[in-house]
Fold this protein.
Amino acid sequence: MPSANRSPFLAQVFSCWNWKCALLSASARSAVYLAALARSAPHGRLSIVLVEIAYVTLTAGLYAGMQQRALRLRSRLLGSAIVAFGVPALAQLLDWLSHRAVGAAVPSRAMLAVSLFTAVSALFHLFVMRRGVFLTGCGRSLLEDFRAIPRLIAAFVVAPFAWIASLAVRSQQAAESETAL
């Protein structure tokens, strides 16, 4: 097959790769594994972390690119579900399989820690991507994204409380309108 025919496929794959998220995910997830495995044997810990760094560096950008593309779907709910649940579930499954394939079985404590981190990370990705941060091909630099992080972390932490408060206000307004009738 001529190389010209393979080029569009590679271009498509790399156009879906989000290097910003690949860099951040590989760094953060490896740190989570190191913390979770702090009391395990050094040789086992090193192999698990090395597999994690290699695997996440190769795949996190692709997963984030898939998430970024899901944001363009007509159905905002479907796009959000893919970003927050679909891609992370696929990533965790493939992560577990990659560790098993190389014989670096991950202790359940570490797998639970990384799964929880992945769930929160996916929700954070959805939150920041909906606000234009950590998207590739959108004209923002990584430095600009980093500058937005403190504000976005604060907004992300406050968001569940704001949502609960809005539910309480709506419930109170509904009760007041019923009593007015």
